[in-house]
Amino acid sequence: MKNWQKWPLTVSLIGILVSQLGCQPDPGEALNDRKRRENEQEINEYIDKNNLRGKEQKDEATGLYIIRTKAVPNGQAPAEGDEVKYYFVQSRLDGVIVDSSETTTGKPNVATIGAPTQGAITARLYNSLQLLKEGEEATVLAPYDPTDNKSGNLLLPAYTPVRYDIKVISVRTEEEQIQDYLVANKLTAAEKTTSGLRFLLTKAYPDSALVKAGQSAKIKYTGKLLNGNQFDASTDGADFNVGTGAVIAAWDEALVKMRVGEKATIVLPSSIGYGPLGKSPIPAYAPLAFDIEIVSAK
C-alpha cells in the first residue's frame, strides 16, 4: 500500500514535467518562426483582452491584423507609384508609445508605394499603408517582420509585436499630384503633350532661333520636387546636348519647343524624368517641375 500511495505524487510530477516540456521551444524550430508564432499568440490575446475579436481582418500575406476604425469602401487604394500621406502612432502592446508622426505640427508623413527603398519607414508600417484606402483610419496589430531590423533597443526590444494607429490623409497618383501642383501654382494653361509633359512658355522671343536636336544649348534652370524642395539649379547656365538622350526625356522634348532667350516652366511625370528608381536626391516615382531659360544654342 505504501508504494501505491506514492503514485499520485509521481503522476503529478510527471504531469508537471510534461507541461513544462510542452512550453519549451521546439529545438528544431527556427528562431524567426518561433518568435513569429509567439507574436501571433500575443496579438490574439491582445485582441481578446480588448474586445476586438470579430472586428479584425488578418492579411495572410503579411500577417497583419487590421481593425478599421473608419472605413471608406469607395476610397482610393494605393498602387505602385502613388504618394500616400498619413499620420501614425506606433506603440507596444502594453501601451508604451515608441514612435509617431508630427501630428501636432500638421505635417503628415509621406511614403511612395513601390519605391525600391522604404527609407526610415518600417516594413510593418509600409505594408499597413498598402492595405488602407484614402480617408481610412485603422489600428494595425503587427508581428515582427523579418525584413525589419531585429536588433531592437530598450524601448522596443527585438522581435516585439507592435500596434500602429494610422490615419491615411491622401492617396495621389502622379497625374493627380501634377494636377494639384498646376492648380496651386496657377499653371493650368500649360500644354499637355502625349508623354504627359506640361509645357508653359513664360517668356517668348518669336523672332529668335528655334533650338534644334543635335545642338548644344546653354541653359539656366531650377529643378524642384512638387513639394517645393529644390534639388538642382544653374543660375549661370550649363551646356547640354539636345535631342541625344544626354538629358532626361522631358528636357529633350521641351527644349526643341523653345527659342533662344525664351523661358518656360515644365512639369513632368517620372516616366519622362528619373523613373521608378529616382536619382539622388530625387526620389523614386517623383514628378518634377523645372523653370528653364535658353541662353544660347549652337
TrEMBL record:
Keywords, in A-Z order: Isomerase, Rotamase
GO molecular function, one term: peptidyl-prolyl cis-trans isomerase activity
Domain PPIase FKBP-type intervals: 81-172, 214-298
Spans through the membrane: none
Enzyme Commission number(s) from the entry: 5.2.1.8
Catalytic activity: [protein]-peptidylproline (omega=180) = [protein]-peptidylproline (omega=0)
Signal peptide: none
Highest taxon listed in the record's lineage: Bacteria
Isomerase as UniProt keyword: yes
InterPro entries: PPIase_dom_sf (IPR046357), PPIase_FKBP_dom (IPR001179)
Pfam families: FKBP_C
Similarity section: Belongs to the FKBP-type PPIase family.
Protein name: Peptidyl-prolyl cis-trans isomerase
Source organism (scientific name): Larkinella bovis
